[in-house]
């Protein structure tokens, strides 16, 4: 029997969480948010004291839990709750609260929607549970339903709720006014589904951000979080230390780095690869935070390998914030990385899984102030997936740092442009774009997206000092000229070989490996388990001067942000921007004089599925110009002109793709309605970019073994991700290349769980990855012949 407001429960189980405790936990989170998101107060679209209204929403959001049947559920007593929603019983208290009507309207919506999407709330709960207003008494189905107003009057502990609100939070409440909740929800849904809710509506961002903030508070308050990390000035101490060490040696940061640390607002930085762009970004960030205060930081990179490396770098004491609690990362293969990361701690499997989930949870929430991510973690919020309001709230006053933004396909670049327009126009986001090889036509797209900005380029002197590569064009195919590479390996040279396809990289690696002391292959067709191992071996080899990785063979995966330094590169032909990035892994620290970079002129037929033949032809022509004018020495200050010669503008096909996605998404975003979510899951959203995960059939026994042990992360790490077009190609080649299979396990409670997965009938080798040309002959060990 609930006789005091201090007895009203908010949660079941132990420890006992009363409604007051839960409200206080959520209010604590709100106080953290107010400190972490100061730019909310400066948004033009917010017309009232935001944080004060958020506090009111928190106090009112769960008052409906004062329903006696809901309390019976929480205390484990017999009940007649009948699957209703407690948030609907919070609404009548808002009606009895004296507040400006425009703010009460927001409170009703965000509190009604703080658990269930409005579509589901209406169809699954309101329509099925309650009689309609003015219902037909002869309708037997209606007669079976509850009367919401009577339910409220009969069961909600109004007196105790009033005492709670008035004594603990000093708000005076009038008598509640219970109304059927259907009208509130359906009126909003009708507007949302007919396109009448638009981003330019006066209360659009008030509703969106209030809802996002309330969800953060409820989520983190329920987790009883007692702090949220912020970046403080001392976190940038590593920059001062680095600068002092340079000055002791009569050096200093480069001029473009110093200039980046003095800029206020958006910045586009162009500087050579290996010229300290990461330090430039941190200097810029330090300045913005000094001027504009807190805001979450998103360091955005295109590839998983570079994200893993940047996460480790920014979390380190020497080159980053030095606090693992303040740096997180998000990408589709995060579980694989964390599984290996925790391997060193020798946890038991169940403990390791808990640690992984705990860390992933922190990375996903606003707890972590700096996240290294792919752009898709931000883009998903523009597609209206569940939780997009929280994602957009997290962007308010944030700092976007894009590295190598040129590396995306036209469709993704179009989405990034829409994101930049939205974030800078509505959410006070500041943007830094760093590049070594950005074509001018792409730069114009960014310029129009971010508005005012400052441009910084590395100095002429620095560019001159970066003369470190000499182009040597080679006739024929790289694969037909391996003898030259073998000779370099026999001399002890550190050699990087870059191919355009996985198949070619595997073949070249197999041929060259016997000539190298240590070697690594890196491409996209490894499973998570082996890819992490190869990245780790490469990293350790780079740090071991006595026994380095002498041969690295890779694909495009090695082009961006990998801090590796080789003596010479042999590469298949590719567009100039890709090749310049590949060159950046050679003589990176500029202590080897001029190093040769060999580019083979002949493409494999399959290369043209990846790169435009016209762009490769223009790239070879540009390199011939370099050879003619500068004896092949790559003059970094001339690269922009050559890049623009190769990419004078969008090609027709790419422009069509860009325009279609840009205009579609821009129109879609303008009508994105808070509280109404897309039916697509987050996993489905990522599939459009990430491709399909398949299990090599030879690993099936291990896969089933892991599933049987409930080790889902380890099982998932055995899958290989392949692109959708590759999946379609292999599926067309042979009917039996893929099989859709299922494995059923039982939970401890005896409930069945069905796990579906694709298998691929191709051989898999831990050193080489998935071998697309070799069929696997696999015999099911459970079948007795």
Automatic annotation (TrEMBL):
Gene3D superfamilies: 1.10.3210.30, P-loop containing nucleotide triphosphate hydrolases (3.40.50.300). SMART domains: DEXDc (SM00487), HELICc (SM00490). Residues 481-640 form the Helicase C-terminal domain. One of its GO terms (cellular component) is cytosol. GO terms for biological process: defense response to virus. Residues 258-456 form the Helicase ATP-binding domain. SUPFAM superfamilies: P-loop containing nucleoside triphosphate hydrolases (SSF52540). One of its GO terms (molecular function) is metal ion binding. Keywords: Antiviral defense, ATP-binding, Helicase, Hydrolase, Metal-binding, Nuclease, Nucleotide-binding. InterPro entries: Cas3-like_dom, CRISPR-assoc_Cas3_HD, CRISPR-assoc_Cas3_HD_sf, DEAD/DEAH_box_helicase_dom, DEAD_box_RNA_helicase, Helicase_ATP-bd, Helicase_C-like, Helicase_Cas3_CRISPR-ass_core. Residues 12-220 form the HD Cas3-type domain. It comes from the Bacteria. In the N-terminal section; belongs to the CRISPR-associated nuclease Cas3-HD family. In the central section; belongs to the CRISPR-associated helicase Cas3 family. NCBIfam families: cas3_core, cas3_HD. This is CRISPR-associated helicase Cas3. It comes from Xanthocytophaga agilis.
